[in-house]
Every structure is written in structure tokens, then in C-alpha cells.
Amino acid sequence: MATSNSSSGVSRNKKVTHLDLKRPQDRLPERSTSFLRELRLRISSLSQTTLEIEKIVQYFFDEVQAAVHVEGLNYVHEGHNVAVQVGSAEKHRASYRLNTQQSYFGEVTFTRRKRFSEVELSRLESLLDLFVYPVRNGLQYREAVRSALTDPLTGVGNRLGLSNTLQKEIEVSRRYDRPLTIMMLDIDKFKSINDIYGHAVGDRVLVDVTNYMKQTLRVADAVFRLGGEEFLILLADTSLDQAVVIGERIRQNIEQSHQGSDTSPYVTASIGIAAYQADMSSDDLLNAADRAMYSAKEKGRNKIECA
């Protein structure tokens, strides 16, 4: 797939297409000036309507219909982990990379059952020129939100991210009567690790423990760092008994991976597990897991306790 080095912002699959952002009206034949002006304005101002990339793609798909009939639109940006499909995926495709001179903003593919004419492709390219900038704003917003909800050291969710996610999972559990379980995990004697080995080693322990959790957990599970050495694991559609099995794997992986030496700490973790019960609030559930975790510490650490 070719990539245009011009300032156009768009390149067509298998063919470099040089476009002029300053005069897109020249490439939308047989349309009234007022119609084109209104359509271009609506597309270029999409980011004033929403900054959510999924909605921007949906709105763009809807607006494109006024110029070219398309049955499906796929937008992908692997670097931002974005994949949005609107409509249906059909046989005939027109794919474009969204570029400026400085940056890449993903790839758009239009599909339909009937082959696209050159005039229609020209119209799509014209509109994509205007679509680049709402997409750029949407990606920047997405990254800002992700950063606000992510712990910078470990890369997992932070306390704010947990607040947003936990309440949604509780609502799903209530509505569909599905089990929901959480684990509170605290690294044992973490202050001593920092004091003896230094904060750089302490940070490495936090990252290592995070990785052991992620390696043990399923794709649908979520990990959050609450602060310091304390983590919360959210297990949707998981019973208490299932959570105990998962928790024991995590506990063993942490213990076996850190046997200790003169230059490396012996690391263990205490885990408290609580299952959501009807009419529990998010605070009730968190407090139950927290109490169970402290019970594990009081009973000698490196243990699992259930609420």
C-alpha cells in the first residue's frame, strides 16, 4: 500500500494520489456549490460534535452517503488499538491511509457490492481530506483519556479507571444476574523491599508483579493499581470458587518468581477476594475485599482469604 508524502493527508490503495486540501470542491463534480460547502463544513466540524473516535467514524459514514453510496466503512489504527466497523463488509473496496506530512492517522476502507467509479473515488478522497482532522482530534482525546485512566509505571488502570469500570460491571451483574468477583492484592512488606534494595528495585517488583498477574489472567479480566503496592483485579462473570483458583495461581507465580538473594528481594503477596451480592454498592464490594486481604496478612501473609 503506497503512502503519499504530500500534504494531502490521503493516499489510495495501490496508487499514490496527490490531493489539494485547499480546493476540495474541484474534485466533487456535478454538485451545487452550496451543497458541497455544507457537506464539507459538516465533516470538518465533526470533532466539535464529539471527540469519541467511534462516533466520529459513524457520523462520517452517515455524511458520506450524500456524495457516494457506501455500504460499509472500516477504520483501523493499530498504534492506538482502534478498530471501528460501520455497516457491512462487502466485496468491492477502496482503502486509504490518512497522512499528513508529520503523522499517520490510520486507514479507512469503504466497501460495497458494486464497483466504485473513478468519479466516486475522487469524491471519497475529497471528503477524506476533511476527515483527517476530526480523526486526529479524536485520537488525541482518546490518548488523553487513556493516560488519565492508566498508571504510568505499570501500564494497568489506576483508581479513576477502576471507578469507571467497576460501576459498569456491577450494573451488568445486576441486569443479567451474572457473577462478579474482585481481588485485592497487596505485596507483603513492600516498604522493607524499598528500604533494603532501593526504590528502583521496588519499581521493578511492581512491574514484575503486574506482569505475573496479567500472564495468569484471562483477556476479559482487568487489573488496576490503587496506589503504592496495592492492586485490584476485576473478574467479570466469575464465581467465588473460580476466583480462588485464579488467585492461587497468581499467588504462586509471584512467590516462585521471587525466591530472594543478596541483590533481589523475596516477594510474596496477600490476596482478599469478595463476590458481588445483590444490593451491594461498589464501596461495599471494595471494603469486603479489603477486609479479606487484611485478614490474609494477619494470618501470616502470602495467603488468600475470602470475604
From TrEMBL:
It catalyses: 2 GTP = 3',3'-c-di-GMP + 2 diphosphate. Residues 1-24 are annotated as: Disordered. GO terms for molecular function: diguanylate cyclase activity. Pfam families: GGDEF (PF00990). GO terms for cellular component: plasma membrane. Residues 1-11 have a biased composition (Polar residues). It is an enzyme of class 2 (transferase). Its EC number is 2.7.7.65. This is diguanylate cyclase. One of its GO terms (biological process) is cell adhesion involved in single-species biofilm formation. Coiled coil: none annotated.
